[in-house]
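Weekly puzzle thread! Below is a chain. First person to post its structure in token form gets bragging rights.
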Amino acid sequence: MAKIRVQRRLAAILAADVVGYSRLMDVDEERTLQTLNEFRAVIDGLIAEHDGRVFGSAGDSVIAEFASPVQAVRCAVEVQQTLEKRNADMPEDRRMRFRIGVNLGDVMVEGDNLFGAGVNVAARLEALAEPGGICVSGMVQQSVEGNVDWVFDDLGDQEIKNIAKPVRVYRLNLGGLGAAGKNGPGTPSALELPDKPSIAVLPFANMSGDPEQEFFADGITEDILTELSRFRDLFVISRTSAFKYKGKAINIQEVASELGVQYVVEGSVRKAGDRVRVTVQLIDAETDHHIWAERYDRNLEDIFAIQDEISQAIVATLPGRVEAARRKRAARKPTDNMAAYELVLGAKVLHHRSRRQSNQEALDMIQRAIATDPKYAHAHAWKACILAQARTYGWVKDEEAAWNDVMNELQIALALDDNDSDVHRILAAVHLTHHEFGKAVFHQDRALALNPNDDLIVVQKGELLTWLGQPEEGIAWIEKAMRLNPYHPERFWNHLGRAYFVARRYPEAVAALQKISAPDDGHYALLAAANAQNGDEAAAMAHAAHVLALEPVFSIAHYLEKMHYASDDDRAHHREALLKTGLPE
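Winning reply:
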């Protein structure tokens, strides 16, 4: 039998989709359809102007092919800018925003249609984009760099459903400076400033000339950030958001605008033998004026004193003269063993990568830290974190044994130092899992008192309140966590969606849950339930079908066993919503 020859070519693929289309249709079907047709006419026209070709369109989505990634990116930018102007003249609840993804890859050709991973990745990139935003693959970013006047924010490698290897993803910053140093025609999106002094600590530069010392500079940054977070009169941007700027040439005023802060801290670390030099400066972002700068040349063993001095100096110089002396500082018990300290810094960096190999390397490093200093409480707390991450991702052979190890490490850490916020954060989560709500509340509040600006602690407060039947309060805490960390993990949307669902605010629940790029069966089940309660039977059944495709033996009873509702009414409400989707009991 003759082998069928498949025609292939390299193409730039643009995928676009409406955000919250089901909600808009529920509000006003006819007007939404009219707006969609008007916007589609604009999009199709711009695609044609940039020598593109639409080859797919289903409902609220469009997918197009371009011969050049430069043309595809320029088209995407013009689409978003044009639609944003049109949205400005419409009521907020009727505005229609699109997400756009652009990929460059090999595609299969069948008539007028294109198929293959090149198309699939573009669609997945679209799902990662923010409303009104654009995400592109690494291939696109490399191809257009120097040919377009836009900045690309590196979002790192992303696991994409049904794609074997992680894909490097970049977000197009429509308000940034271009490669040629020109101002792009877009307007930077500035966040509203908090009502108290706000600050971001950017990753300190490693000046040692040794790549192996990179983790040391990162760890110093993280520890200074943690110290500042202990002051309740400060609004401190989270580590995750701050580290998005690591290794990049930055404009302080643009960074401050993107993160919504008044002040920025930057510095450098140079380590040589048993000596360390830390330089640090505090900048008023509005004026780009250096408020304070200092250089510390010390023995390595003085590193904790340096961190305290930097933190207190920053607090003392901020407007309003935040009185650090009046804030009762949490008693800390840092290790005297510098080798153990450095090992913990390295383990944290590896843990944050959320990869299986990195997790194992982090565990090896943290165990070396504990062997070096068995009484280092923070090392035991982070061993629990690393073990819990492995268990959550299914990287352990024996879940029960891993769980016991997590609990054991937490008890050790707690006995060694009752003032470690991470210990209490993890203990709160553990007790919630066992429906020990009183203990969960105790440890959650203790963690929050110790570190009120840690986005993971803040979002967990919102989660806990939701499970306790106080979703409206939970929503406020989750939104605060998202503000603390504008580049928050995607799972924050799931927490927010659940809180809206428990609050019976179904359209908002659907909108939040739709922001998850790669839903698992649990996400699909909650999305199906929210749509069912929202009266969208077709969407509910479609999401229920996804649940069964991913988990053929799914049952409502087994699913609800994993839920931590304190209220029988909330559990019954969730069960009734799931039954409406047609999922099996």
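Puzzle host: Confirmed. Bonus trivia for everyone else. The two ends are 49 Å apart (CA to CA).
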